[in-house]
Amino acid sequence: MSFLRRQEFDEFSTNFNEIPAFAGMTGMKKKILIAPLNWGLGHAARCIPIINALLRYNFEPIIASDGDALTLLQKEFPQLKSYSLPSYNIKYSKSSNQKIKLFLSSPIILKASIDEHKAVKKIHKKENLSGIISDNRFGVRLKKIPSVYITHQINVLSGNTTAITSSLHQKIIAKFDQCWIPDYEDSILSGKLSTNKKTKLNSKFIGAISRFEKENLSKKYDLLIVLSGPEPQRTLLEEKIIVELKTSTKKTLLVRGVFSKNTIPAINKSTTIVNYLLTEQLQQAFNESEIVLARSGYTTILDLAKLNKKAFFIPTPGQDEQEYLAQRMADLSIVPFATQNDFKLNKLAQIKNYKGFENSNNDILNADLFKLF
Q1: Residues 240-297: pLDDT tens digits?
Q2: How confident is the model at residue 219 (pLDDT cuts 50, 70, 90)?
């Protein structure tokens, strides 16, 4: 049998590579499903640097979520495939009885996790996944596929039921192959939320991940206000801040954190209002602002740590995690805070007595992290 000439061999190789059955043998990208919880925008936002790292290391990320979390990632990565998952329908109470509301919602959350597990099976059947990354979505995992769970809450604070909620969460985490914790091994940012030496979870600290980069830009705003989180508390805080801003002369940018065409009337000549900003524009706004007013959500803390910002926190009422984080940052003399009921704009003057966030080394999303896949 004669050898193929060079031209014939090249044509044969091209045709061979186009046959689906052999595509995986010739450098086909591994598909990784990445699915954040839709509870405010924080879970989706902190998945952005992970998606960028997957792209950098030649994986094919596939997005799955619901609501605003899905919308954010679709807008950030319009070139990627995306799927809608069942919603957990998590909402905050207008009062401080959030634990009661969550307890009453537990059957709905359980059903959603079962439904999303079925949805992931269908996605895998269609896409032939090589890995799964779930950010706090209980049912986004498959036994035969390497599955990762992202959380900074090994311990779930819930007052006198903390031991129960933490144990339940750890049992969920144990069903995954790895748990990625967005912090450093000293848990400097998350504190007791991620500190538990008694557990046998396969955990990896992946650093203070953030979608933003620090830039040395001229200051354009005295104050950047970033609203986020589930309703109705997002709107309640927005209404309070609007009242506070009416007499303010501070050059202010208010980012409402909603994907809606509905706008609110102008407050004054010194305040600019936008419904949302995508990563590039929001990064610029952060870097052009002197101080930041925001919830004490953990993703916000990760972002502020990366950007070395001074800030003021208003924890979401009834959310023990945010209240703990706000108190922790104040105790460390990093950021002051006030409750939603007590907040007044003049309290921002306290910021000068706090050191703000210091720079964090963020280069932990390297190739070794993805060896599991």
Answers
A1: 999 999 999 999 999 999 998 899 999 999 999 999 999 999 999 999 999 999 999 9
A2: very high
Tell me the pTM: 0.86
- Class in CATH terms, 24-210+363-370: alpha beta
Task: Residue count of the chain, please give it.
Answer: 373
Domain 221-353 has CATH 3.40.50.2000: yes
Terminal C-alpha separation, the chain: 41
**CATH topology identical between 24-210+363-370 and 221-353:** yes
What are the residue boundaries of the structural domains of the chain, listed by start? 24-210+363-370, 221-353
